[in-house]
Amino acid sequence: MLRLADFKLLSFDCYGTLIDWETGILAALAPLAAKRSVQPPPEALLELYARLESAQEAETPALIYRELLARVHARMSAELGVAASASENAAFGASIGAWPAFPDSPGALAELKRDFKLVILSNVDRESFRASNARLGVEFDAVLTAQDIGSYKPDPRNFAALIAKAAELGHPKSELLHVAQSLYHDHVPAQRAGLSTVWIDRRAGKGGGATPTPQAEVRPDARYTSLAALADAMATAVAKGNRNA
Questions:
Q1: Whether pLDDT at 119 is above 70
Q2: Dist CA 139 CA 143 (whole Å)
Q3: Residues catalogued as catalytic
Q4: Who has the most CB within 10 Å: 163, 183, 222, 233?
């Protein structure tokens, strides 16, 4: 059983966990979808995005995220059978900073910040994350992006970098808890790296969406359907630990 009070540092995926990227992606894809006489259902668009984004990340791991998304948009337009200009592709890549935060993210992060160090491990570039960070309203103790590391999750190098950063901050991986929505990008590689994980199941058990289905079996150590629920559980664990100290 996961003992939440044992952890001192929490690492977070950003997009899908803290930022509502599916809402942001669909809004940014609306002009492309509108070019078709019959518009694809939102879930079909998200699943197409998931397939092409993960393929592009594997093919071009050194490409920064906003440029990578421009290529994903071009590939989506080709698969949908509609034309997209270079400026439209670039606009999709530049949309990251406009993707909204989940309503509970800023408050939950502020609550967690009182008792824990917070680290970001995200498939993003530094410039795009700065815009997202402004929506989250908290100062993270460290931010690790794909641009910094040179690879995209689920590459094990990203989690090796996370564990190394935790050590720099004074914490062994036994005190590091990774918090994420994506089973594919985060939970499978994090657990292979020996980390405990909490699943923020933003889709409430519904499969599909903007993340591929993992090929490996994975069992997160705990599951919550919101970040607020995790923050409440962590606060209770801390209070109980203090009472027992």
A1: yes
A2: 10
A3: 13
A4: 183
Mean pLDDT for the stretch of residues 36-57: 96
Place of tokens 């990251």: 96
DSSP state of 215: S
Measure the CA–CA gap between 81 and 71, rounded to whole angstroms.
15
- Please indicate, yes or no, whether the overall pTM of this predicted structure exceeds 0.85: yes
Single-letter residue type at 240: K
For residue range 124-166, what is the model confidence (pLDDT) as tens digits?
A: 999 999 999 999 999 999 999 999 999 999 999 999 999 999 9
4-20+99-244 is classed in which CATH architecture?
A: 3-Layer(aba) Sandwich (3.40)
Q: Which amino acid is at 49?
A: Y
> How many residues are recorded in the chain?
245
Instruction: Please state which of the four CATH numbers 1.10.3720.10, 1.10.150.750, 2.30.42.10, 3.40.50.1220 is assigned to the domain occupying 21-98.
Output: 1.10.150.750
Q: Name the phi and psi angles at 138, rounded to 5.
A: -135, 150
Answer for the pair 197, 188: CB distance below 8 angstroms, yes or no: no
Is pLDDT of 47 > 60? yes
Angle at 48 between CA 72 and CA 222, to 5 degrees: 105
Distances (CA, A) of 6 to 26, 113, 176, 233: 39, 16, 9, 13
Q: Beta partners for 117? A: 9
27 contacts 193 by C-beta, under 8 angstroms? no
